[in-house]
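Minutes, project check-in
Item: structure for the 424-residue chain
Input as provided by the requester:
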Amino acid sequence: MSRTVQIQPWYCSHLDQGTLCGFDREVIEAPTQPLLHQGARFLFINKGEGVLRLQNTDYPLRPGALVAILPWQLSEMVQVDSPLAYFILRYQLDTVNGVIKSICNVRSEPVRLLEEMENSPVIYCQGRDADRIQQLLLTLQAETQRGEGGEADSPSRGIYEISLLVQLMVLFQRIGMAGDGKFGHPRQEVDKSEIFRYLYTHLSEKITLKSLSGIFYLSESAIRLYIREMTGLSFFDLLGEMRVAKTINFLLYTDLTLEELAQILGYVDASHISKVFAARMGMRAGEYRRTYQKAGEICKIKESRLAYDVVAWIYRNHTEPLTVHLVAERFGITTEELHKILLYQVEKNFESFLNYVRVLHASQLLAETDTTITAIAMEVGYNTVKSFTRNFLRFQVMTPSRYRELAARARRETAGDWKAAEKD
């Protein structure tokens, strides 16, 4: 039996769609229906015990539990042993993450806060750690109430909110990695609910049902049906919903043009983004920016066209024998600057990003052709099968031959679905 889940709004506050974060308190006494979250949030448990199902993995909740929910993740309170009372902090993840990458990463090393929050989304705080988390959340509550109370915006309020949100994310990582915090048990395998997160984090790419079928080892019709049953939206309508939500964040907190946003978010061009945005929001993108961009002078994330040119050039030329020095020289920058650009844009250094793109290309060839694994390795830019296999295992967590086997199975299932449909 299908059940369409409720999709939570992307904004943090009903009173002000341009706010960076919003605070609330909630008490529940019984299990809840599933929720699909367009925006990011933290839950901090003050009282009660129960079980939260996040991305189809169950996590026990008790006082001191801090839960990190990322955009387009699926959550559900499946068990309430005693009434749960908790804080809810909604926040603009892309903005905070951009600040972390552009300001805090001074050593040109990957910032893995989001990766750890996604892999292990629940930590358990005790004693002084729990007090620090609670105090941070209460301070953020006071700041959000200051704005909702009609007090004039000031640069200091925006900067303060950003600093508190960054502190919270850093504390989440530190407490989770410490012996006392204990990250909640990480997810062990890819689940269908990961489809939503994957779509959201790959909006700039050409995403099709066929490509999803190869990644999640499900037939295209199965993916289409799952999306429809869970959200009530078609595959393309869901992509549009996600792109509009990301567009809003960029309109609020950057000065990027519509042409630049179209390139970043997978639209055809500026006119396409205008049409989709107006249909969904009831106003033009420029009008929306003028109405709600209160934080524009506070926490702009300056993203130069050079950064997008670098990423696009590596993507188009990944089959060539590229080196970090060659690419840096081509764009007239240092290797350190190149690493910083890539860490900011794609959260990977040069070597990781190059191998990631090559593995994606190889995955497509494995799924759609009968070309030998050795020939594919050479075609996507590797000199040896050994280095290709090592990097493929790193990103796909399986060998190329196993990936091809699962992709072939998904193709057979798709073919079977079409034959069944023709009979009907």
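Outcome recorded: Residues 295-303 have pLDDT under 50 and may be disordered.
No further action items on this chain.
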